């Protein structure tokens, strides 16, 4: 018995020693990944212990934490930076500084990320491989997102995504550094998103998501969202000049204002300015498109736990426009060719000034708090003519849309990452508001740009307050995310049109000028990561888009906040070290579709019956392949079937909604500094009306860019529409009547796309 007890005791001692030995080997490793030049944190860097597969992904502060690390080294990688093997330093806050390096798909690692940035690999690859040339190119970076410009170069682009003709942003939430771009109750259309105040060279990265699955994204997040981030600091100063056909001239300067010594202390500032002029193409009426942009950003550490960021920007832009024309205008000789104009008074002017103040504070115990206050002043004036002599046979249908507003808001959130054994919990709670004071919101009847009478004239005020909570649990291969968002809206519209003007006054007589509504939007996301090469995800969520305040009041609150319900089933897959694939099946139901000219008071006819419920089903496919060290290929293919569900078969097509889009490119980067690529954009034919008796023509365009880049300079050429294809950029169904016609005609009107367009550039770095 004594021997047995002694033997058990010795065995227990051996086990304890073994466990203690294991505990001394296993450790928790914390750290931060930064850019070696700018000293700024790098988000979405993969930190992995090899060969165990124990891993983490850095958050927006560049922070990571690995539990139970047994190895004495870790592997850190992120797209666009040279990968690095580092020695672990348990008990010490590590700082890993990465240098910019060659882009390689081998650095793409599929990991569970608490930030739910499913498409971070795609956005990082595309921004690094396809440097943008304009604000329009920023939107085109999103796989499956197409745009169209009409009414001159200064207007917001028409956006197409996931089977939506989202007009100018009705179903796509767009933001820059937390400042919303979409305009509610805009004179030209709900959700109008003019991104031209953003200088493309200042963009450091962007995030995007498709569908209504993101708790921190509210109004207009039905088809998806796009969020751009500007550079906190410049890695180098730059001066650039671009010259091209059609009298195109663009000048840009980006200058650091503070020294490297101050940057190392956590304080930096820079300023960027842009000036653009172009005739816009071979139009008989030159656009004389002019744009001025100025942007500045200042960062400083108030103390070790508090960071302050201040930024300001301003835009001023003016242009003339030839507008949309029907085919018969050319065929019957009203204009000499498709680049002519039926109304030469069309054009616009717009300004926007933004200010943002952001305070990020480490509260201790793992909690971080972000506070952002922002303010914008906005002005918009546009003269258009779509229907010519249909509504007003004598004076014509020319009209002016005018919008001036002050808008301000607050974005606040607290977040914390907690570790419980091998499970990681990320908790986020946020609140915010947005207030728009619009004075006036105006739609006028004009002739040759001169005022004839009000079609709609008033003052609008709109308040949106919100709160949300989001919880993510990451355990082993699983990631579970659930969140809920609550939004409250208050609408006010005061009709200011004269009582004698019955046309403008009639829709609002006897109507309560106030309306309000709240909505709750739950979201659920699940990921299962089999290994660092294959991941499945499922998304479920509810979103919404708000209606125009004028429509809400005129219709006594009908469908104030139509809901959207979506589901995605997708995968991220690396079947080969140099091949990355993202694919998804998706579904979206919309309580009320908003279509151009149908629901909104944005043209002389005013609103008609609200359009109905819709459903969309589709497939998204994206692939990125590295053929050699210097040659990369990408492909995006997007299929959608959009239909009204409360209309008879054959009458259920959603006008202008895309059904098939595709983009692809071959990009090259040689060691000798030569780089560039050739790419295509394909948009399939689609229905122009609900019966598909009118057709919106598709197109296939090819673009080419070639640069020679050295440390101190870069020269290059960019060519749009390389093969000079005749195409129509924007298309709409209008019932219109030309000057001498005896009756109106229902026909597709279009803005012709720009033909072969070449542009040269020279950039100096210092």
Write the layout of secondary structure elements.
Layout: H1 2-25, E1 27-35, E2 46-48, E3 55-57, E4 63-69, E5 73-77, E6 84-87, E7 93-98, H2 120-129, H3 135-140, E8 146-148, E9 158-161, E10 164-165, E11 172-176, E12 179-180, E13 182-183, E14 192-193, E15 203-210, E16 224-230, E17 238-244, E18 248-256, H4 260-264, E19 268-278, E20 289-303, E21 306-320, E22 325-326, H5 327-331, E23 347-364, E24 367-384, E25 399-420, E26 423-447, E27 450-475, E28 478-495, H6 502-505, E29 514-531, E30 534-544, H7 549-554, E31 563-576, E32 579-590, E33 614-626, E34 631-644, E35 660-669, E36 674-683, E37 686-687, E38 695-696, E39 699-709, E40 713-720, E41 728-736, E42 745-752, E43 757-765
Parallel strand pairs: 1-7, 11-16
Antiparallel strand pairs: 1-4, 2-3, 2-5, 5-6, 8-9, 9-10, 11-12, 13-14, 15-16, 17-18, 17-43, 18-19, 19-20, 20-21, 21-23, 22-42, 23-24, 24-25, 25-26, 26-27, 27-28, 28-29, 29-30, 30-31, 31-32, 32-33, 33-34, 34-35, 35-36, 36-39, 37-38, 39-40, 40-43, 41-42
């Amino acid at each position: 018995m004594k021997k047995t007890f002694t033997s058990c005791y010795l065995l227990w001692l051996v086990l304890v020693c073994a466990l203690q030995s294991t505990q001394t080997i296993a450790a928790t490793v914390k750290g931060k990944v930064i850019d070696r030049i700018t000293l700024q944190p790098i988000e979405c860097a993969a930190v992995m212990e090899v060969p165990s597969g124990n891993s983490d992904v850095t958050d927006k502060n560049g922070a990571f934490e690995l539990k139970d690390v047994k190895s004495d080294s870790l592997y850190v990688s992120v797209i666009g930076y040279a990968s690095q093997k580092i020695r672990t330093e348990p008990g010490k806050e590590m700082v890993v500084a990465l240098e910019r390096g060659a882009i390689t798909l081998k650095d793409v690692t599929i990991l569970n990320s608490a930030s739910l940035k499913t498409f971070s690999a795609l956005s990082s690859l595309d921004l690094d491989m396809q440097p943008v040339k304009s604000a329009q190119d920023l939107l085109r970076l999103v796989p499956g997102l197409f745009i169209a410009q009409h009414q001159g170069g200064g207007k917001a682009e028409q956006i197409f995504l996931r089977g939506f003709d989202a007009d100018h942003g009705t179903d796509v939430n767009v933001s820059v550094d937390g400042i919303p771009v979409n305009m509610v109750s805009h004179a030209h259309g709900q959700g109008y998103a003019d991104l031209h105040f953003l200088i493309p060279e200042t963009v450091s990265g962007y995030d995007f998501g498709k569908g209504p699955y993101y708790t921190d994204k509210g109004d207009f997040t039905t088809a998806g969202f796009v969020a751009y981030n500007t550079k906190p600091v410049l890695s180098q100063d730059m001066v650039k000049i671009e010259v091209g056909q059609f009298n195109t001239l663009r000048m840009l300067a980006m200058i650091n204002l503070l020294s490297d010594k101050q940057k190392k202390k956590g304080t930096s500032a820079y300023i960027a300015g842009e000036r653009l002029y172009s005739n816009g193409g071979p139009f008989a009426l030159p656009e004389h498109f002019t744009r001025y942009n100025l942007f500045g950003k200042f960062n400083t550490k108030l103390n070790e736990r508090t960071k302050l960021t201040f930024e300001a920007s301003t835009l001023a832009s003016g242009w003339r426009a030839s507008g949309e024309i029907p085919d018969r205008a050319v065929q019957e000789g009203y204009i000499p060719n498709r680049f002519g104009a039926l109304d030469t008074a069309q054009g616009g002017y717009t300004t926007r000034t933004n200010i943002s103040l952001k305070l990020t504070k480490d509260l201790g115990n793992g909690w971080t708090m972000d506070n952002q206050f922002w303010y914008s002043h906005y002005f918009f004036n546009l003269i258009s003519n779509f229907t010519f002599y249909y509504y007003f046979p004598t004076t014509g249908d020319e009209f002016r849309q005018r919008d001036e507003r002050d808008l301000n808001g607050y974005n606040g959130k607290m977040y914390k990452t907690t570790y419980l054994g091998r499970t990681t919990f990320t908790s986020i709670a946020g609140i915010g508001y947005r207030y728009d004071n619009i004075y006036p919101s105006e739609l006028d009847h004009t002739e040759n740009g001169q005022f004839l009478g009000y079609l709609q004239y008033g003052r609008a005020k709109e308040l949106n307050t919100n709160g949300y909570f989001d919880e993510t649990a990451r355990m082993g291969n699983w990631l579970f995310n659930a969140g809920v968002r609550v939004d409250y809206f208050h609408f006010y519209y005061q009709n200011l049109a004269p009582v004698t003007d019955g046309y403008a006054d009639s829709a609002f007589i006897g109507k309560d000028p106030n309306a309000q509504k709240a909505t709750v939007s739950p979201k659920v996301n699940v990921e299962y990561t089999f290994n660092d090469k294959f991941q499945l995800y499922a998304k479920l969520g509810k979103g919404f888009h708000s209606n125009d305040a004028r429509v809400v009041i005129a219709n006594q609150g009908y469908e104030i906040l139509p809901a959207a319900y979506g589901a995605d089933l997708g995968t991220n897959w690396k079947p080969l070290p140099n091949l990355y694939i993202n694919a998804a099946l998706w579904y979206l139901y919309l309580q009320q579709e908003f279509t151009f000219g149908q629901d909104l008071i944005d043209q002389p006819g005013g609103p008609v019956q609200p359009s109905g419920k819709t459903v969309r089903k589709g497939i998204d496919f994206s692939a990125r392949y590295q053929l050699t060290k210097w040659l990369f290929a990408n492909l995006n293919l997007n299929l959608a079937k959009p239909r009204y569900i409360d209309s008879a078969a054959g009458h259920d097509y959603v006008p202008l909604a895309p059904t098939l889009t595709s983009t692809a490119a071959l990009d090259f980067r040689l060691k000798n500094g030569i780089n560039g690529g050739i790419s295509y954009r394909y948009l399939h034919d689609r229905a122009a009306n609900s019966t598909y008796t009118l057709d919106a023509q598709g197109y296939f365009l090819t673009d080419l860019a070639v640069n020679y880049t050295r440390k101190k300079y870069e020269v290059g050429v960019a060519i749009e529409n390389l093969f000079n294809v005749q195409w129509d950029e924007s298309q709409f169904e209008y019932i219109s009547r030309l000057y001498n016609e005896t009756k109106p005609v229902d026909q597709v009107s279009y803005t012709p796309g720009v033909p072969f367009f070449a542009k040269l550039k020279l950039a100096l770095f210092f």
